[in-house]
What does this fold into?
Amino acid sequence: MKTAWSIVLAFALQGAATPAESPPQCGARERHHPGPLETFLKEAKSPDLETKVFGSLEGADKARVVFKSIIAWDPAKPDAKLKGLAIEVVKGPCRHTTYVDVDLTAPQEEDWLKELLDELEYIKDKREVLERWSGKGSDSRGTTVSVLNGLPPTARALGVAETVLNVGWYVGGEGKDAAVSINGSPCGELRFPNATITEVIDAISAAREYLWSH
It folds into this structure.
């Protein structure tokens, strides 16, 4: 597991949403490599789904983010279930869903949610982050960690992962307070001035525990 301040040993690949998720106003991302859960949801004709919401944030410019667990399977193959966290972001007319796979067969190598939670712990205290910025000078106006997901199974042996979102703190202008920031999707940056990183940690942690126990 890498810490929040270590070099990310992964390719940060920009993704592309489906037309339904990414209206023209959202912009486009290139070279997105969907993982197993996202691929299944796009290709399956009538999958069975079990979903559960574990938290949401409301922010500026009609921004909203929802953290939801998903368990999906083909009705003809009920024992072959795919699991993951869905992070649904909305900003005005733009809607996009990012998926993070949970693979119980490879918990040590690919527990992307555990890795994310470990990193978020380093930046959850806004006061400490602001003090760190002060020590670095006025140019330090943002601190984020990457939400990683593994590439499809054919590329998994290479140990390559994709950055699908970034979560952290960001100051948008002189005199403004730091706000929780979620960015990297076609919807651009979403800011949540009244939210905390602890809320994000609690939602993702609860979803992860649920997925591991079901």
About this structure: The first helix runs from residue 36 to 43.
